[in-house]
Design a protein that fits this description.
Blueprint (H helix, E strand, L loop, with lengths): L2 E6 L5 H14 L4 E5 L13 E2 L6 H8 L3 H11 L4 H11 L3 E5 L4 H5 L3 H8 L5 E8 H4 L2 H18 L3 E6 L6 H12 L1 H11 L2 H16 L6 E3 L8 H13 L7
Parallel strand pairs: 1-4, 1-5, 2-3, 2-4, 5-6, 6-7
Length: 253
């Protein structure tokens, strides 16, 4: 029962991707369960099989402790760690062959607090992977793309789990831009050319130096384009995850 944590910046399409990928897996006769790990979610595009809000709810914390939304979210992020046993039990009881975990909308609450790595490590002992979303609309600008490279590297540094990179929301940008961003992820020279052509001054220097620093770390950011609206790219995502988590075999046997 491998776990895949869907992570990315606010607005990158985590919940929509989770819903679309879960539906695609079900249509492909795969046995999948979905976990909502966002205690502040008001509405979800899927029906969670496991829901952290059953144990930690931001609205309840705001009322009980007289907190604002941000304070309650921070408190909730840490309280989730105390519910690991309950969440693990709920996941086990789902009896799925693959579990998709939709993480909080504000990535920093999950990735950059002490509770985040603890939750990933302790939420069952099954194999795990992270699926990091690059927002295609945001990333057509090379400055923004390099910034997302940096964030993705920081996330990897926090969790040290197998990490797949997805270019999300590709239906919202021209296909030529999708191909260009995907080529940046495969060819550092193509990214460097885009930086030189589209950026100037400090932005150009900063982006080039950051790109080179990340490349020196040996981190690869090969992007798999995907659309949660059209299901384009789902086959490729699934194939990569099967290779990472199940030695290339289907999750459901």
């Amino acid at each position: 029962m491998p776990l895949v944590f869907i992570i990315g910046t606010a607005g990158s399409g985590k919940s929509l991707f989770t819903a679309a990928f879960a539906d695609w897996l079900k249509m492909s006769k795969q046995d999948v369960a979905v976990v909502n790990l966002d205690p502040g979610a008001l509405k979800l595009p899927y029906q969670p099989d496991v829901d952290v809000r059953n144990y930690v709810d931001v609205g309840d914390l705001m009322e009980k402790y007289n907190l604002g939304p941000n304070g309650a979210l921070i408190m909730a992020a840490d309280l989730i760690a105390d519910e690991i046993e309950n969440l693990t039990r709920d996941i086990d009881e789902a009896h799925a062959d693959l579990v998709l975990v939709d993480t909080p909308g504000q990535m920093e609450l999950f990735a950059f607090r002490a509770s985040g790595p603890y939750i990933v490590n302790e939420l069952t002992k099954e194999p795990k992977a992270l699926l990091y979303l690059f927002d295609a609309v945001f990333c057509v600008n090379p400055l923004n793309y390099v910034s997302n490279m940096f964030l993705s590297a920081a996330v990897y540094n926090r969790f040290f789990q197998p990490q797949l990179h997805v270019l999300s929301k590709t239906d919202l940008v021209p296909s030529g831009d999708v191909q260009a961003v995907a080529s940046w992820s495969a060819n550092p020279l193509a990214l460097e050319d885009a930086i030189e052509a589209k950026l100037e001054g400090t932005k150009r220097l900063f982006s080039r130096n950051m790109m080179q620093a990340i490349n020196k770390l040996g981190l690869k950011f090969l992007l798999s384009p995907v659309s949660s609206k059209t299901n384009e790219g789902m086959v490729n995502i699934n194939t990569i995850l099967e290779r990472i988590l199940n030695e290339g075999e289907k999750y459901t046997t």
